[in-house]
Amino acid sequence: MATKREKQWRFSIGYTIFMVIFLLLLQQFVVPLYGPQKVPYSQFLAALEQKNVAEAQISETEIIWETKDEGQLMISARLPGIDDSELIGQLRQSGTEFAGNIPSKFWTNVLSWVTPIGIFALIWYLLIGRVGGRQQFLSFGRSQARVYNRESVNVTFNNAAGVDEARTELQEVVDFLKNPMKYRALGGRIPKGILLVGPPGTGKTLLARATAGEAGVPFFSMSGSEFVEMFVGVGAARVRDLFEQAKKNAPCIVFIDEIDTIGKQRGGAVAFRHEEQEQTLNQLLTEMDGFDPSQGVILMAATNRPDVLDPALLRPGRFDRQVVVDKPDMKGREEILKVHARGVKLSPEADLHTIAGRTPGFAGAELANVVNEAALLAARRGKTAVEMAELEEAVDRVMTGMERRSRALSEDEKKRVAYHEMGHALVGLLLPHADPVHRVSIIPRGTAALGMTLQLPLQDRYLFTREELEDKIAVLLGGRAAEEIAFGRISTGAQNDLYQATELARRMVRDFGMSEKLGPLTFSDGSSPFLANNEPKLWGRQYSEQTAQAIDAEIHDIIERNYQRVKTLLNGKEDSLREFSLELEQRETIQGTELREKLAERANAELNQGQVRES
């Protein structure tokens, strides 16, 4: 097993402020309880007259005295400039023992000074143990990397499915670590750094560990966020320590996850600059220039934000090679499902090929979640194996969320949702370029979906024509058009459909140059394909206000034209829309194959009736 890294030491200035205030309050309120009690000089004279003073220690400015009855220790300040020469006689008359020296009060000193120091040391000791471990006290500059030795790296390329191209690229690194002399004899130099680029969940970290497992070398793993601390210079010190440890354990692989945390472009907007991050990046660049890959130290890093990395980090001699780890195709998804299904008992009728076809755009992490959700569903239902029904439902859960049958819809709402979803389905069945309809359901799911029309492409697509994109927009508008035809009024249920349709039309005009008025131009903002939300670049659009108005007009024209096309299409199939919607309202779920068969039967019946009329 890999050695567990202790908690990262995190120091806060608030702890120091708290302790200073605590000590001041302790000195002000607690310490006086253990020392002499201050009383007026008049009270001392009164106690002396009552012969209640057992002992007195007299100095030029104060008198420390002890009562006879309760043995309390008092202190009184002497009156300045007043002759109290009769005091000695009064002390003798009352039988008080007195002296001119103040005796040493050992326990008083202990309670007054040593106790606060001891309390402070105890609290400090406990804080150190809580925030980082006593062995890491003041060890901010040491690397926090998790180290996996040869025995503990039990992941190989057999565990990384669906990434054949990336695996081929990394096989060269494995071969170099195993047989370095083969490359040195030819004068070849292995890349210093390998950057794994891809969307979240595609297996970048898994590939890095699998590379170390295949090569049988130690694996140093550290996240980019673990370099930066509150103190200036800690990140750079940790980079130095990481490379020193790696050189001592060569050959090995050093892996930095989410390197964009410390590798962002230097300069730029002031709000996005961080001096400590820049120092850490500078140290990383220096270390990459200073180490020789022939020593057997390979630096690997992963990011899903390659567009924000500093150019100096990506130049040859540092991260020489970029390996794209993209979302898998259908064959890759099937292989990934098989890998995650090794530890799951599947029913013989469970078809992973079909599930792979149902999950276009899924990353490896999402496919792993599908298999796990299916196993949980089967266990909850008391089954001995995971069947196809659980796998199908698991896909729906991952895509749209859990079924929410507890969300009770009124009869009017249920009817409207049925017409809405059937509008999507009918348009998808009637248009030539639309993806095949797999299932229609009016069971609420997730946080907002009241129904679902699921379409499955026949194959993975990477290019789309204008006609195909417009058919996609038409399918999205089918729900709103069906509501307007059936009820004469529209509702808020089409909000997400309108958003997707508008966004698709915007990309047609702005990014793909599919506008006849604007011509073959692109007005893209340069967003990265790996960004989950496609954030625009900081500098905004690169076109005039007049062009922006023309883009808006073209988007409106595409949406309006396709909406009228959909209404015309559904008006010609109003009987089918009414019949299928009523059946969907009663059954709640209808398969796409059943809808296609019924639509074909109605088309044949209408064709036969037309032939009879002609004859």
Q: What can you tell me about this protein's structure?
A:
It is a single chain. 49% of the residues lie in helices and 10% in strands. It has 615 residues and is α/β, with parallel strands linked by helices. It folds into four domains: 1-139, Signal recognition particle alu RNA binding heterodimer, srp9/1; 146-324, P-loop containing nucleotide triphosphate hydrolases (Rossmann fold, 3-Layer(aba) Sandwich); 330-400, Helicase, Ruva Protein, domain 3; 411-607, Methane Monooxygenase Hydroxylase, Chain G, domain 1 (Up-down Bundle). The strands form three sheets. A six-stranded mixed β-sheet has the order 6-8-9-10-7-11, sandwiched between helices. Helix 8 (234-248) runs parallel beside helix 9 (275-290). The protein is elongated and about 140 Å long. The chain starts with 12 loop residues before the first helix and ends with a helix.
